[in-house]
Amino acid sequence: MSRPNLKDHSVESLRERFAAEGIAPYRADQVAAWLYARGVEDLGAMTDLGRDLRERLAGEWATRALDVETAQTSRDGTVKAALRAEDGALVEAVLIPEEERTTLCVSTQVGCPLACSFCATGALGFTRNLRTAEIVDQVCRMRELLPPGRRLSNLVFMGMGEPLLNAAAVVEACRILVHPKAFALAPRRVTVSTVGLVPAIEPLLRAVPVNLAVSLHATTDAVRDELVPLNRRFPLEVLLGELRRLDCVTRQRPVFFEYTLIAGVNDSRADARRLAPLLRGIPAKLNLIPMNAHPDSSLAAPSEERIDGFLREVAASGLRVTLRRSRGPDIQAACGQLALRPPARRQGAAAPSLQGAVSEGR
Ligand code: SAH
Fold it and tell me: What distance in angstroms lies between residue 8's CA and the mean position of ligand 1's atoms?
């Protein structure tokens, strides 16, 4: 195998590793400042390390895990890139510039094993988990594609894969994201999204102070079993019961429920009315996402009137709810569209009603 990568380690873990190798632990902080705060990967250029240490580290460690294979910019400014790992695996990351923030959406797995029926990544099947360095390097590469004057403000683990099936690497990446010497993101600007892998939720929330998003998508087990096959193992009562039980879920740290609205599947008035009672007792915000069309699914978004009606019904029930508009639909960069399609196949695949729409909420 190739050399170990410095980006596989949080600052805390690198300090320990350095100490064990007879290197002063504070050197880990210096290395992190170069790699993440300054975006320098050439160990030879890390001048405050001293020449001997620079040479030693350069002989033992790698600092890069991904290269940009292709990058496309949407009419709305969203940038989607395919990034190539050392073994040739490709993953996608999406940069979403908005008025008041710039959000990066990163992947955690090559493909995904959970096969949610409406998700393009699910149709790819599963290849492997990403390493911490490969998660963190999505931030490094995408940051280099930021328009001048833009800073990364938010990060969501909502790209390809199920983060909680790769929890150890995700937690280590979160530590790097929030460390003041590294990316220094505010912890509440980092959100990990899961379909509801129940046993992995509490350990994640206890390990790192980030937000939790849960992909809900249905108000009955019958419908959720069809959309999210993992629901058969962790049905609604078990998932929501766990969230109700956790004392680390509070009004200051609510759960962000994601609800993809799919015409004729989960968009009825009855669904809208069931949501508030279903989520009672859980500090929550609900995010509605109209289904983004893609070639692997015949499912579609409801009409504008129906989306509007659903939103109003939920809001009237007292739940905090927002509607998220798709970003980058013309380049298949929206939620559930990440599937590494070559550009030629993307033409005309986006849902016309969502073209150019702006993002609200979140
Ligand atoms: N596996 C995790 C992380 C991915 S997040 C999870 O599912 O939570 C990606 C979000 O986009 C999820 O909420 C997912 O349900 C949603 N999504 C998937 N396919 C979609 C589609 N075609 N249209 C709109 N949203 C979709």
Answer: 26
Q: Regarding beta strands 126-129 and 109-111, do their DSSP bridges make them parallel or antiparallel, or are they unpaired?
A: antiparallel
Please give the model's pTM, rounded to 2 decimal places: 0.93
Cβ neighbours of residue 195 closer than 8 Å, sequence gap 6 or more: 114, 116, 162, 214, 215, 228, 230
DSSP class of 5:
B
How far, in Å, from the CA of 280 to the mean position of ligand 1?
23
Report which secondary-structure segment, H or E, holds 285: strand 284-290
Q: Give the amino acid at 283.
A: P
Which of 118, 166, 212, 323 to mutate to test ligand 1, by most ligand atoms within 8 A of the CB atom?
A: 118
Question: Which residues have a Cβ under 8 Å from the Cβ of 197 and sit 6 or more positions away?
Answer: 162, 164, 165, 230, 234
The CA distances from residue 111 to 95, 340, 345, in Å, are 19, 10, 18
Which residue in 203, 178, 180 sits closest to 188, CA to CA?
178
Task: Return the amino acid letter for 114.
Answer: L
The per-residue pLDDT for 342 is 63
Structure tokens of 173? 């990446």
- By the 8 A CB rule, do 108 and 169 touch? yes
- Token pair of 126, please? 């599963």
> How does pLDDT run across 2-23, given as a tens digit for each residue?
799 999 999 999 999 999 999 9
Distance from C-alpha of 114 to C-alpha of 162, rounded to nearest angstrom? 8
| DSSP string for 31-73 | HHIIIIIS----GGG-GGG-HHHHHHHHHH-B---EEEEEEEE
298 phi, psi to nearest 5 deg:
-95, 0
Q: Among 91, 104, 114, 116, which is best to mutate for testing ligand 1, by the most ligand atoms less than 8 A from CB?
A: 116
Query: pLDDT class for 337, splitting at 50, 70, 90?
Result: confident
Atom 15 (ligand 1): residue with closest C-alpha? 215
C-alpha to C-alpha distance for 59 and 61, rounded to whole angstroms:
6
Catalytic residue among 112, 140, 174, 335: 335
* Alpha carbon nearest to ligand 1 atom 26, residue: 336
